[in-house]
Records
---
Amino acid sequence: MCGIVGITGVPQVAYPLLEGLRRLEYRGYDSAGIAVAKAGGIVCYKEKGKIKELEEIIDLDDLDASCGIAHTRWATHGQPNRENAHPHLSGKVAVVHNGIIENFGALKVALSNKGYVFHSETDTEVLAHLINDLYRGNLEKAVQQALKLVDGTFGIAVIHADEPRKIVGARRGSPLVVGVGETANYLASDVAAILGHTRQVIYLDDWEMAVLTPEGVTTTNIDNQQITKDIEEITWDLDQIQKGGYAHYMLKEIFEQPDTVLDAFRGRILPATGDVKLGGLELTDWELRSIRRIIILACGTSYHAGLVGEYLIEEYARIPVEVEYASEFRYRSPIIEPGTICLTVSQSGETIDTLEAMREAKRRGAKVIGITNVVGSTIARESESGIYIHAGPEIGVASTKAFTGQVTILTLLTLLLGRRTHISAEKGMQILEELQRIPDKIRQVLDQSDKIREIAKAYAQDHNCLYLGRGVNFPIALEGALKLKEISYIHAEGYPAAEMKHGPIALIDPQMPVVVISTRDGSYEKIRGNVQEVRARHGKIISVVTEGDTEIAALSDHVITIPPTLNMLTPLLSVIPLQLLAYHIAVLRGEDVDQPRNLAKAVTVE
Ligand code: G6P
């Protein structure tokens, strides 16, 4: 995820700025840049790749100043390259930005009409031009006016060559913290960047701004009213900060899901018409209606997201879908007919089997669409069009937030396709209304983490575990089992609940915990029957049920609840307790959850 550092009041400011960027490296990034304010103008260097590569091109004499800003970028709009890296400049203004400007298209047109020239594909560049356009000798005023014209999220740091000792920061939806020093002041998206200089900080809230000079910090709201903020003392060490106070990246990423799901649909839904816009798809309505068949290619967790997609697209958009392991698809002779599109689903965008399967599909005439997290990854580049999930870097090897991001995107795609064929405006509106409630409902499930930890204690020493689900929750059973296998090394299988009687039932005894996803939907009665079969054989039952359920709860040893939602959105909630259960069991067994044995985050070799 992008990182911001700003410092004013330190001679040779480039050194501490680069040091601050290094402290943010753990967040993941694909390019970096630095700009300082000098009386003559802004001096800026940026480069694709690592901070080391930026250091190779900069001239430290040229950067000799005491006030500057720096950035590590994780691409969201446009490829990771030098042009798209931050800072972005306009005249004497330099801006670094985290977040997404949703109305950047309209602003870009307006600014281009005024003669501003755009050098990058980013949404951030509009901010630089906008602030420059509104500047009349007072930077904070220009920033305030610019931000009133902007929709979306931001954490920004801005400098101007005419006020070369000043940094203006502002936030809406993207974190920003001010570090208060003796003779210098600091601004960052993450305290890790400034911890080496000060432990006295002010956390900005949404709609707040800070103006920093070496002498002091003033805080205002976006309407320029002064506000008094408390100075807090940081007691965490660097490792704790990098994990956001969580014990592991995996847990941090599980807890990020209310935000990452929101980021996946933010700016893409049209609640008033029950429709969706997915700009990156580059398909006309006519092309969308001409799709006759969809093949989803993926591996691992992404494959399970693809299976959820199959249930959704077939049921709501009525288009035949096949989901295939990419490794199988690439080595057989797949049939691709006219009107077939291939969706390649991959967090990293680098998994070799998925990449090669995509190339094979392309060779045979399919239109290929990438659903990836890493902007500019090979799959993103080689697919004809794509949709990014915007989950931010996923560091834990066991994928969690990327999965819910992928499912969110596949839900949006279902609605996009369905609204052109089978889904009414009213139904579309109902789905979108409920989708907007999902982040809060995920929070409600996360609130049960301690309770799930208690449940985990009863099963941490077991050797096997069975996961059952039906319909759209069958892929969730597979994903729950995969999570447990990956990080706890307990043998686990996911099954469609009704298939249990065709084999796994033979294994059920008091040593076989069975996790059953049994939410209130059309198959509730059936799944209750499956639970009774397990109980009759003295299997231990952990059930994931809809709040208020009493029937299956009464048959279970342990119950985890999820809030009621539309059946099609259930996977976004039902997977959360299974991620937490796997996590807590692995921790109780003393395993290294972020680096499980034998597994890699991106499998780029066969
Ligand atoms: C590896 C990872 C899994 C991931 C799979 C597919 O096995 O350990 O977590 O689901 O690759 O990765 P992708 O980046 O293509 O989604």
---
Amino acid sequence: MRNPATGPRVLLKRLRDVMAKSLGPQQRLDLIVQSIAANMVAEVCSVYVLRADNVLELFATEGLNPDAVHQSSLKFGQGLVGRIAATARPINIADAKEHPSFAYLPETGEEHYSSFLGVPMLRSGRSLGVLVVQNKASRTYQEEEVEALETSAMIIAELIAAGEMEGLNKRGIGLDLSKSVRLKGVPLSDGIGSGQVLLHEPRVVVTNLFNEDADFEIKRLHSALSELRVSIDDMLSRGDVSKDGEHRDVLEAYRMFANDRGWVRRMEEAIFNGLTAEAAVEKVQNDNSARLMRQPSAFIRERLHDFDDLARRLLRQLMGKPQSNAGLGMPKNAIVVARNMGAAELLDYDRDCLRALVLEEASPTSHVVIVARALGIAVVGQAIGVVSLAENSDSIVVDGEEGVIYLRPPADVAAAYAEKEGFRQTQLAHYAELRDVAAISRDGVGVDLMLNVGLAADLPQLSETGAKGIGLFRTELQFMVSSTLPRLDEQQAFYHNVLEEAGSKPVIFRTLDIGGDKVLPYMQQIPEENPALGWRAIRLALDRVGLMRVQLRALLRASRGRELSIMLPMVTEVREVVRVRAMIEKEQKLLAGFGHELPTNIRLGAMIEVPALFWQMDELMEAVDFVSIGTNDLFQFMTASDRGNSQMANRYDTLSRPFLRALRNVVEAGKRNNIPVNLCGEIAGRPLAAMGLIAIGYRSLSMSPSAIGPVKSMLLALDVEKLSKTVLQQLPEPSTGQTMRELLTDFADEYGIPY
Ligand code: PEP
Ligand code: MG
């Protein structure tokens, strides 16, 4: 039976009155503990708040020695209070002194009290402190009392989260929420960013905690729940969810949770006890998070994410808030923090303000990461827990080289990174000055420095870097960021815009390189054991000729009156090039038949990524107008080491003799056949590697926009002839002596070449 004179509803009413009064933080807290003690007929009620140094400090008490406030403390994990904070679980016992964790604090005078009920003050499943009631008589508190104390704990947690308690502690140590945190994730895209946190999914702050009318709130909850269920069903039935993909599994799990009776019942209970619908969602989610975080099974902990996500959606539904921050105003130096996001969502942010991206999930091959890399945005992934630890506007440093994040960094770390950033800015200013300087070595050898791009947002880089042209336009990126297959007219408009922006500079369009790890959400995927070796790129295009034909037609139409350069990815045999050439000719005839203006000239090239081409090099060069080496794939196939596997990342050297010898072969074949040879893998953008490539004869390198400055800077200081002589002399030597990397490093050091 609920006692109408006490009971949770009455307690909440009292707390609401306390919150409505205009009081200082200490006074308010004192009044809160007094109200709780009175309502629960407890002789003691105390609040312990977790500080940044992992100590729980007594912040207020009714019943214990008042002199102990801000003097008495317990370490996280120590005593009953410390244990509650550490486990995020209540303790309810008739005789506290009998508990093995009991720690006696003489200054508080608590030895008189037997029964003890303590609950964690939770936010996003984390303990911000502990709320305790005690009685002299030995008894166990009822479930209803536990519920009342938990609800009160949530209200105090909101006060802490709102910053009300900052500064109350006498020792000048900040509270746990303001603690600086270092998180180790996985580096996914180079660069350093410092700025302010912008949570991708806005955290809803529940300000309206107490209800006026429980029935009305229950109705609100149910209507938000049905809207949520409908929106999940909608997402599931939409064509943009792949048939059996992981995305679908997550949504299925959401649907299951959204219909979970236990979850709904607990929220109803919290509303009945006096909370608004949104406060009830938050309270139940806090309990859920705390419970699931403690689960040893990684699978169950993973479900916590889903549940969190769902609760956040429900909260936003209740409060009429947008589901994402993208597209809204953002700070000048925003660092977007998210559990995960789609590539298209990233593009909704203003790129000029976006400094870095932090994700709890994502791998090097996630679409959002590929796009971020293309945009030159630093990314750290697998940063577990960052979403619940970060608050909007928190200061943050993201080190995309080391894969480390500093949330609310200490002054020395912030200063060290500011210095690093300053150095980088100086370098960037230097590179900007080089923009119009010709890319010619000290001894007069010119090298074409070209760009690897793939999005409309990349195009301004062409003039900003002073690059000669676009050596690799990854057309699949447009397909990857789109939610449906781009139609012919959309593709045509997109390519036309690229050519317009490029003006007189050459552009090499690579046809769709999809399949393998580059998945299109709207295309059914056939499971493959080894996707990198599977049905991808030109192979897929030649089997799905419809897709290829549309792309060729769009390219031909977009290039009317201009030269068109098309490059084919993952060519394995010459026949593949011959087939595409025939397709192009057919399309040309068709377009001409309809009176369309055609390109002035068409150049067809092949990427050299598959080692089999080395034994048909002359034949290949007869069939193409140019070649470009994709060293990312070529290296993974030559060394049989997965390019996306971080364990393999530095195992074999891209400047090793066997690899450089292979690359030298292509240059020689190009000369023999009078066919231009370009190189567009990652290594072209690393100054030391670019030095080696120039030494073995490369005169056209294509790289990401941010690499143009460093590579040009290296080239301007280089004596190509001198280096070539040494390198070509050493190349045939046995691999056991000085490595080619050492040789290049020594040379650069000796002649003061920046690398
Ligand atoms: C490569 O393989 O080197 C290349 C440039 O293509 P991608 O990285 O798009 O596979
Ligand atoms: Mg490739």
